[in-house]
Amino acid sequence: MQTRYTKEIIPIEGWEREETYRFFSTFTQPFFNVHTEADITPLYRYCKRQGLPVSLGYMHATTQAARNTGNFLLRIENGQVIRYSGLDMSTTILKDDMQIAFTHFPFIEKLEDFCGNGAQVIAEVKKSRKLFNGYQGNDLLHMTSLPWFTFKGMEHASAANRQDPGVPKIGYGKIEMRGEQVYLPISIGLHHALADGYHIHLFLQELAKVIGSYTT
């Protein structure tokens, strides 16, 4: 399979998750979902000051945090556990005809450059008639945004007739203002053979660090 990032095989025998992996990898629906929220106040204010799309801002922060969380880099390919050296993102874009398009955004370290490239990608995809746009490998995060309403929970569609490689699934709801603070509903779905709730905790810690780095 073509990939954007290098990968290494994690031997399953003797792996600290061997028993957990063998247990959950037999499930027809092995994903678990956690629904929470993130305080994105510093990032929100930074994006507003710089004239950047807030949605691309929090997706960029999510990708940064996932790249720093080891278990978010794990995948299952041909019965082997793989660890990728990096991640991009693929998110849904609402096209001009009100249909969705799964769209690849290459990761760029600097937020301003990422948003500049992202604006070009979105402009092209909005006029596209394709469902899939750009690279769609396993070294991605799958994202979707529901900016019209907040939510208390979200489940993602899954194909029961094939082995899922375990790409993390991230969903966002409508931003909520509470006084001076800005909160983002976020749903995180992980393959239980590759990660547990503790790893979502580590991810959320990394996300808070990234968001906090925009404090002036």
Automatic annotation (TrEMBL):
Domain of life: Bacteria
Name of the protein in question: CatA-like O-acetyltransferase
Database matches in SMART domains: CAT (SM01059)
